[in-house]
Amino acid sequence: MEVHLNAESHRPSRSQAAALSILLVASLVFGNFLGLISTHAGAAAPTPPGRGTAASGGLPRAPTGSSIASSGSLPALGSLPRSLGAVPIGEKVQSTLDLRTGTLSQGAVGTLNAVGPIGIAYAPTSNQLFVAEANSNAISVLNASTWSIVAVLPAGVGPTGAVYDSGNGLVYVANTESGNLTVVNPLSDRVVDSFSVSVVPYAMAYDSANGYLYVGNGAGNNVLVINPATKTQVASITIGNYVSAVAYDSTNGEIYAVTDVSQVVGFIDGSTNTLLGNRSVGTNALSICFDAANGYIYVGNAGSNNITVLDGATNLPVAPISTSNPGPMFVDPTNHELYVAANTYVVAISTSTGSPIATIPTGSGAQAIALDGSSGNLFVTERQTQNISVVDPSTQTAVGSTLVGAGATDLVADPAAAAVVVLNPVNNELFVIDRDHRLAATIPLTTNPSALTLDSKNGLVYVFDYGFAEIQSFNISTRLLVNTFSVPTLTGGGAIAYDPDTNHLVVAANGADQVAFVNPETGSVDGSVTVGAQPSRLVVDPASDLVFVGNYGSDNVSVLDGATMRIVGTVPIGGGVTGMSFDPADGQVYVADNVDSNLTILDGASGLRVGNATALLYPGSMAFDPTFGGLWVLDRSSTTLTLVVGATMSSRIGVSLPATPVAASFDPTDATLEALSGSSGALYSLGPVWGFPVTFTAVGLPPSSGWSVNVTVAAASGTGRNLEVDLASGSYGFTVSAPPGFTASPSSGTLVVNGSSVAMSIVFTPIPAQRFAVHFLESGLPASTPWAVTVNTSISAATGAGLDVSLANGSYPYFVTAPAGYSATPADGVLAVNGTAQSVHLAFAALPKTNPNPSNNSSRNPSSGSGKNSTTTVLPATWLWLLAGLVIVETAAVAAMALALLRRPGTTQPLRSSPGASPPAGAQGPPQG
Questions:
Q1: Which residues partner with 307 through β-bridges?
Q2: What whole-number distance in Å separates Cα of residue 37 and Cα of residue 25?
Q3: What one-character DSSP code corresponds to residue 23?
């Protein structure tokens, strides 16, 4: 067997890779493995991998979406037989699908959807909000009325602060890492300019009195004063280390700058741009705002859990306000109440009493607050959840939110449709991913969908929508809604799974603390059970027909008999249940506990606890992978996927992703593990690695040059300057194919893999182009007469009968420079050099002579051009100069003779005319003496 790799055109297609994987996995897993499976007593007939029923939902969101409807034992990691001697040693990301844009990339690629919203500014001229997204280096534009994203604009690197300039109607965004400001026109939603500043711009404020921007140095101790009209620095004012927030006081024209490290607030006179003084504040001072009604300045001190209050008129302190972890703040100009964003909520505080009025739940990681001057709503950017919460100060409630990332939370593989289905509950839609891992379709849903599952018998995908308390079924092949069932007793988000033994949809509703058994054909609820608090995870063991319900609120697992629809046991868990999965390799259920960083192991047949295993720091969703016979565990605190095998959890393989995964599912269509990142909106497809990576690196090639490597007994591909192939330990022959015009070194050889990766450089050297002689042969010129030929702008001169040029293969224009008085045939043309020498014959001919004085033609002048002897001769320049000299000498001699005759006495004879000369104009004869 030989596999050919090509950086340009010989890479295996996705379909070819899928077909290869299907053949390998089908023959190995379902041929060799099923013969080794010892099923539980009473187990149902095995069904294909990925058609099981594990699903999840609820709070916190970290669904599993993967299960196998069979049970038994599989070989340990590394013992899987494979033709040609290779064994799977791990798994790697084969491709990345950006769900937001539909872009499919090879390998692990970071998307721009993990946007990291920080700064926000409201533009009244367009009624839009402009959000600085630090992770994606972009600016999201939101319609303030609909809360929808209407545009995404490019920014610099690491945008953090945003401010609206009411003087010119533009929005300015501070780019911390690239050290510049991006300028946006809100009326056209276009970036119109950018300019550098001499600091690390972080926070900004606009002074409407002088029209200046005040830019806080996020890595220094000063505030820059920028004139936006000229894009020049007006002043630099030293405050203290790490300027974290800036605010403008419209009543006295002062600017207030807060420093985190120095723990002071500086007072700047906007008319003179000088520092008036500073005042100490609390620790970790990260936010500031100003109340025009009472003239107070509020500084949020996250480290000391309080708010420093200063009188803007005197800059003296007033009684502080105690509040936990104060973040960004804003004073509502209508009710003059202070709104302070903390970790997962916003606190409304009375500015008159300093007491909290209301606590409003929102997302987490608040960074900035902006006011929509039209509706009066407050918009809070939340970096951790990639979200923008909308708060109505009049009702002191959260009235909505907008996700600036993709927001996908759950997925399931549908082998019948050869697709993977991804749920996006924020935008109420299903993404359909085809067998080539491309975004094939988007199916709209009703409000508040929370989880989905696959019915392995009828092939339909069911979505639990807690907003309408209903279940919708979809045919993914046709992209059509099949049916809608109302389940009014099920409130709140939760999870849904399919039990193939009882033919029930099992639905957990965390608002009602209930689990219902729904007939997927009729939609009737055949039974319901009250379980623990906030059921948010579901796993079905099809062999024992037990249903395991993870109760996040009560830290336990309810064990239900799916046949009788009754609780048969309750198992306490150390902390909140964040993930569950059934492992058919050992017939056990694994429960993730992110409080104790633990996996609780339950026997799938009895529901009893059989062990514990130390897991990752914050274990979340899990998925079973039949290729390895183990579970992939997602770490909610990192970007890591970890494979664990068996109850001992001794064998581990780690795969790092560009973003944190929230769900995973095994896709039997092409034997890949699909890992979903909600924050980045990316679907990562992981395929098995059957050996150790061997990387060939091209040195000396232009980036776009295609090249290839042939390796025996290999299976991998690569792009660009690196080609990668995965090989088991052993010796392998290889050959390199260089692009035209290059040689490769080494061009062939043997590589040895011995339990680790191998890197090899291939040096490409340009081949000097072969050149061929072109002979230009002259005829018709006097000896030693100069002439020249210009070939492709290069001039070659000759004075003999010929000249030679040396040219590589190709086409070259040329033209001939003839000497004065001659013409050349051909005078120009195109040389076609094609591997042989050639000759070009040039015939030179003398040009006809011209009359030097055509206006004085006379019949008595032989050179007048009349008569049969008339000729025109053009003499060379040297001869012309010689004749001119002779004429001058002869003229001088004749003049001297005439003068001598005139001086002789008695001489009256006129001077004789030269032969052929014409008399002067008007003369009638010889002059009289």
A1: 300, 321
A2: 16
A3: H
Amino acid at 31: G
Buried b (16+ CB within 10 A) or exposed e, 246-260: bbbbeeeebbbbbbb
* Token output for 562: 């799916």
Q: DSSP labels for 435-498?
A: TTS-EEEEEE--S-EEEEEE-TTT--EEEEETTTTEEEEEETTTTEEEEEEE-TT--S-EEEEE
What tens digit of pLDDT does each residue of 217-273 get? 988 899 999 999 999 999 999 998 889 999 999 889 999 999 988 889 999 999 999
Q: Is the dihedral of CA 266, 267, 270, 275 positive or negative?
A: negative
3-state secondary structure of 854: helix
CB burial of residue 737 (10 Å; 0-12, 13-18, 19+): middle
Element (H, E) at 878: helix 877-903
- Look-up: residue for tokens 């972890």? 325
pLDDT band at residue 452, thresholds of 50, 70 and 90? Answer: very high
Contact 456, 47 (CB under 8 A): yes
Longest CA span, the chain? 164
| 111 strand-pairing partners | none
Of the candidates 785, 768, 701, the one whose C-alpha atom is nearest the C-alpha of residue 737 is 701
To which residue do tokens 């076609």 refer?
832
Cβ count within 10 A of residue 541: 32
Question: How do residues 728-739 score in pLDDT, each as one tens digit?
Answer: 778 888 888 888
Give the span between the Cα atoms of 316 and 337, in whole angstroms.
21
Task: List, in sequence order, the alpha helices (H) in 302-363.
Answer: none
Stated pTM of the model: 0.50
CB neighbourhood size of 849 (10 A): 15
Q: Give me the numbers of helices (H) and strands (E) for the chain, helices first please.
A: 2, 74
Q: Which of 63, 22, 12, 96 is nearest to 686 (CA)?
A: 96
- Kindly give the pairing relationship between strand 802-808 and strand 470-475: unpaired
Report which secondary-structure segment, H or E, holds 412. strand 410-414
DSSP code, position 85: G
Q: Which two tokens stand for residue 524?
A: 């009737």
Distance (Å) of CA 798 to CA 50, 340, 560, 785, 815: 82, 89, 103, 8, 14
| Two structure tokens written together for 471 | 């279940």
User: 727: which strand partners?
Assistant: 692
Identity of the residue numbered 910: P
